[in-house]
Amino acid sequence: MARHSDLYRLIEPVPDLRSEDGRGPVLVHGLEGFSDAGLAIQGVSEYLRESLDSQLIVEFDVDELVDYRSRRPHLKYSFDRFADYNEPTIQMHAVKASDGTSFLLLSGLEPDLKWDGFTESVIDLAGSFGVRMSIGLGAMPLGVPHTRPTNSSAHASDVDLIKGFSAWPGEFSVPGNVTSLLELRMAEHGIPSAGFTVHVPQYLSQTAYPAAVLHLVGSIAKIADLELPTAELEKAAEEFTAQVNAQIAQSPEILTAVELMEKQYDEFMETRLGSDSLNPGGKPLPSGDEIGAEFERFLAQQTGDGGQGDDPQRDG
């Protein structure tokens, strides 16, 4: 049994996770809290669990790992009583890809506490399950237009793992987070580790963004050689983009800002000059917050006029 079993409960029986050729499973980990622009990490986890055959095999003790006062769980109040409690979870599922290959999915809230104990627990579990590679997921808001292909920044313990993917250049310091720490610690324990941080338009980062989920699922499938379904995500991304385009077309201010962002994004992609993808041309560019604020004002006006049209900022 793993050394830090006090932080989790193993749920028996655990299925055989090895492939027909004897390879161990891939571990995909996406924890919500630090880097989940466009609700992409939550979206990937829910999509993989719900669209594929999945089995809960590990439950972590959230009482030991989560500070409830910093992220208060929701309770449902119904008329004269409290009716339900949205209990936070940190779980690991065994999931079967479309071709029958098993992989592991670690999802839920990013721990507030005991990062060392948590990462060591995950590494111990990875060792006992024979994990052959780990893949971390993140999503960050950037000054990119929604009308262009979704991209991500890849990173890995071995550059050969991410050949064919785009990596973020340079060296810099970033705020600590458990997903990145897991990527580092896995590599230190001899488990090849990679990760993808998908780029989400800043002005849409507070709403569910299906294109980011689609991109991450595709990246997982490619690097891990897994067969994962994407038809439902492709349809959702197309419908969402159409809704946003229709609403933007009715606001000259937003349309002008997005067109300027498109122009500067295209110039950057063509020239690859500089490393500042937030403002590649060095020209005045409305911030994502400014576009987002204008977008929210526009949506509020539409609601005030009778709520015509679908609001892409509402889930489902």
Automatic annotation (TrEMBL):
Q: Which domain of life is it from?
A: Bacteria
According to the record, the residues making up region (Disordered) are: 273-316
The record, for Pfam families, names: PAC2 (PF09754)
Q: Which InterPro entries match?
A: Proteasome_assmbl_chaperone_2, PSMG2_sf, Rv2714-like
Protein name in the entry: PAC2 family protein
Organism field: Dietzia cinnamea
